Amino acid sequence: MEEIISRIASELETHHGLNGTDSEMPISRSALLDLQTLADNAVDADDTDDIDRLWEELASKNISPAFLVSRITASMDSGPTDVTLLASKVYLSILLSPNSPVFTLFTPIAFVSLLRSIRRSFKQHRSVPPSTAALDNSAGINKTNRKRKGGGRGKAFRNTVNDTEDDVESDGDRFDVRVLFPILERLDSVLCRIHLDRFPDSLKSLIQTVAEIPVMALESFDNSASYQRLSDLCFRILNGVLKTEHGDQTIAATEVLKSLSPAILLLKSQARALALRFVTHQMMTAAKDSAAVRKAIAYLPRYLVQKAPERSEPRASAVESIMEIVRAMEFDEQVGFMDYTVKMTQGKANLRLLAVDLIPMFLMSFPDPLGVNRDEEAKDCWGQRCLVALIQRCSDAVAGIRARALSNLAQVVGFLSADVRSQARLEELVGLGNAEWQNMDGGLTTLLRKRCMDEKAAVRKAALLLITKSTALLGRPVDQVVLKTMGIACSDPLVSIRKTAMSALSEVFRKFSDRGVVIEWLQSVPRLITDNESSIQEECENLFLELVLDRVSRIGSSGLSHIRDCCSNLDAGKKNLEKKIALSFPEGVLVLLNEISDGEVMPCVKKICASLGKKKRLKPTIAIALQNIIRTSESLWLSHSMPIEKWTAPPGAWFLLSEVSAFLPKAVGWDFLHHHWQLLDKTSPDGEVRSPLLQGNTDEQVEGIEINSTAWAGDRVFLLQTISNVSMELPPEPAAELAHNLLKRIEEFNMHSTEVNAHVKALRTLCKRKALSPEEGDNLVLRWVNQLLSKALKVLETYISEASEVSKLNSFFTPPRTGDRKGKRVAATSPSLLRTVTAVYTIGSLVLVCPSADLKSILPLLHTIITSETSELKVKRLPGSAIPIKQIAPSLYNQSWLTMGKLCLADGKLAKRYIPLFVQELEKSDSAALRNNIVVMMADFCVRYTALVDCYISKITKCLRDPCEVVRRQTFVLLSRLLQRDYVKWRGVLFLRFLLSLVDESEKIRQLADFLFGNILKAKAPLLAYNSFVEAIFVLNDCHAHAGHSESQGVRTDSRLFSIRGNDEKSRSQRMHVYVSLLKQMAPEHLLATSAKLCAEVLAAASDGLLNLDDVTGQSVLQDALQVLACKEIRIQSNRGTATESTEMDEEGGDGGGVTLAAARGRLATQAIKKGLIQNAIPIFIELKRLLESKNSPLTGCLMECLRVLLKDYKNEIDEILVADKQLQKELLYDMQKYEATKAKSTVAEAVETMQRANNYCSPPGHGTSISRIAKESNIHDRLAEKLGSAVKVASAMADVAAAATVKSVLREVNRGTSTPQLRSISMPKLKSSMGGTLTRGDRPLDVLESLRRRQSFDSDEES
């Protein structure tokens, strides 16, 4: 030891001698090792002689302990990591050695150097390759070991390295932070000897450093046990500084918690878990004995709220950490933080968003949030305050917060509804029983109604989710407006919203089976079977199977006894038997079946049943249940002694059975089918033949029971389809008998048109399935088809001959007799005509079944009928040469066109000859039914003969402006389908003509158009709206005043038909709606390009004279272009990168990094395009402004409004462009300010005039209630401020208006002859002159009076 002491003393003496040259020279590594050996020997062996001799030796050489500390401090501040850590360890060991002068050795500078060396070790590990640092470290240790050969010294060194360093693996891959274990252990021991109350800065540095070690050491540990030990050492030190010996506990606890906040706010990591455990266990234990620590912990969640990140995933982790701390606090402190969170909902956007995430955690984590188990009033319950705050955030100004609040409210409602008592209290709070809340915002129903129609997709999705969760809570059917909105959401462009809307609407259907819910569900959900997304199709099938088929199976399979028991209790004297039957089937099954038979729902139901049947998911119980329902209905009818001839099955039952029987033929019994076939196989109850055109007008009523012959005929159609489906299961003899009966019925030609098709198809199916071979079946079908065609030909020839004779007789009269209206009506309903119409329809059905049939004899007759009007015009001078079929038999005329269309579908050569005739008839026919049928036929021709019809598409599109709504809707639907299947291309005027459907008079057509442009077209042809936008402005205005657009308009009559001409408010709003719909389909880059095209092709053309502004349509085009450039839809919303703006993206599960990168690239590209746009647009605007001002055009106001928007949205770009022309910039700004001032004055003047008119109606005038008047004026002031964008503008404008009104009143008095009093008679205050003294009446300066006389009036001030 003497040698060690001598070396240390000599080195320090050398350093002491060089103090003047290098005062920061560190002590050598060997000296540090020697000092460590002495300190360890003094501590471990409890031998203080060696360390005492060291102090004596240094004192003899006039070296103070402070000098030793300065050398060690220099070593801690410089050198490699192993040296700095060794110096730190030596310093702590010396402080712990017995008899050491602690107060001399401990200095704040040395202590901070100690902490800095620990922190630097982690920083060097991250900056320097780990292998290099590890190799240097291991090389240094090995080198030292080789130098030290002494036994005692070697043993001392081994003790210095500590027990834990024996386990360090020398793999050389990374810096092993386990070397910090002995340093931290010694640091903890030093804090027991040295109190830091006198060194607050050292205490703060210690807390910050130790709190960061677990976070910095995350990358350095592969062994969790070692990391656990390191963290325990750090938390033990932090727990130690909370003692009173180290100063104020409040300051220490606050600093500890602040330093741990970064670790607490980390994502899922071990450091976060350990930090939370330290706070919730160790510090909470200390808080029980210390009010200061408890107070600091109580404020920790509030601090974390301020430091919480804004991105979605880190924010969720922060919420979990905050909640874990709050759960460990006392109840009073928890309530205090909840109240703080409620106040956060009124703060900044990031705080509101965090509060919205915290409130559901409160309500779902703590017991009894609504106070149902306590006696306190509901208004004093913390849960109510949180719930009201959450509901208020559902109407937040930021869309992301609204969406998040709705989603979280849905979770809360679902959680609280599980408890019956909480559900009752929740009903009161959300507006179903709480008058205060309902008056405040309309309740939950009003909230859902507003949010379901929100402009943001994420908000709509969250609102639908809330409906799903709150259905059970409502206790009654959802509001009809909300139901309608949910149905519309099922057609939303986003897949996630369509799925959510399906789920929400289906949840309402599960709970409530009233008619409105059933109708909306069937109108919205089944149609999704045609959705492009396969998952939505599968979900649609599952929901239909659960909510329709399984429900029908469950009710229908319960047997007849239960239903009869229910009906036995009903009053037999009731007249309305249908209501009794409806009450017999619970869960609204009859309503469900009735709505399934709706014409718009039936195609979707057919597709769903076909898909379920192919997947073998249809169960026989559904077919059995439907049969039971039909039997039960018949049984109940007979039990009330009603005539069976008047009975019809529940609507929709036969239809659904006909669809499922195709896949469940064995579940349908022949006896059941045979019985009802005999029952329904009648022409009519009175045996008369019924016209398909008069079925709905000849219903009879017997004993209060209305006979719906259309439903009666429809039942027979579906019964025949069911028989066809199960024909393979029929016995041979009944099948042959049925085929014979079907053939006989067809030959009579006295059925409804739908029955004809059903009979023909059923007969063909029976023949083909019962034939021994396919050839035999085809021959059998051809035989009876030719037989029926010959009989139909005879019926048609007979009628034409009779009509020809009547026409000849009438032609001999002068003038020729045409018959009165009554005679025409009798002729139209004559049995021979009705039979002929049915025969013609049967011909078309037979041709579709058997295209190879012989039609040579039938074609001339059909040609004669469809050309009868043309032939009559050609030979009208020859009596008896033409038969006016269109006049005497319009039903036969229309039916002949339909049959000819079917013949053309079967024969291509025939189609080539007759398609021009179809187009000609479509243009000139005055029958809406015929036009509708021809449109359907032309669509079929387009599929079969695409090349032949393509040249007539422009003529077909004229039906989009047909006066009949049915024709317009049919045309729109058919053309849309052809466009989707690429039979028709979006070229020419087709797209421009489709635009007018967006503003059609029919709401259904508008909805179809919105879906086409918003969903289908946006995905199929995303550039179509951009490419046709400018041309659409000219077409909609019917403008031919532009040289570049005059030739593309086509015929003037067609262009006027497909235009919205006019400058009235309705026309402008309709055109603007079309423009906005197109803009919504464009990408951001296309919006900017559209702005550039408008500037170049419209604004520049107007300023250059290419667009004639003297023409009314030219003015409308320019006005529309300016309004489009000023509308918000064409402006690109700037993303500011906040979490609240990107929450919608987070809700959809977007990748944060990818979104950020894409947004950054998009902003750069957008900025460049915007700059180029403004560089080209500003000169055009300036030139156009001068032109319009020179012409004193009323469009100057539109131009200034558009320019105001550009100055607002592109301020930076405009400043850069006009930087070289400051005078022009000032002129533009002055003109804008003048325009805004004039606009403000006019707006305020109109408002004041309106208010004065309303005040004149008071009795007496002007003496209304002061409070209401003040409130009204305040309301008007607020609305004006919102409209003009500034309350200052409103105040200034109102002052100008008031002054102008005063002047006008004075001038009015002057004009009436009232003399103005002289100035001397007016009492005026005495004024002091600038020179001092008082001015009297006689010594007024003459120049002041002269200036007053020369003041201009207020009216002229506006013009100047």
Any idea what the shape is? Answer: elongated
Taken as a percent bin, the fraction of beta residues is under 5%
The CA-CA distance between the termini, in Å, is: 104 Å
Radius of gyration of CA atoms, rounded to a whole number:
46 Å
Percent of residues in helices: over 70%
Count of alpha/pi helices: 67
Overall SS class: mainly alpha
Low-confidence stretches: 127-173, 432-441, 567-575, 683-707, 819-826, 872-881, 1046-1051, 1134-1155, 1261-1272, 1329-1340, 1348-1360
Report the oligomer: single chain
Number of strands: 2
Largest sheet: 2 strands, antiparallel
Mean pLDDT: 76
InterPro entries: ARM-like (IPR011989), ARM-type_fold (IPR016024), CND1/NCAPD3 (IPR026971), Cnd1_C (IPR032682)
Subcellular location: Nucleus
Keywords: Cell cycle, Cell division, DNA condensation, Mitosis, Nucleus
Region (Disordered): 129-164, 1312-1342
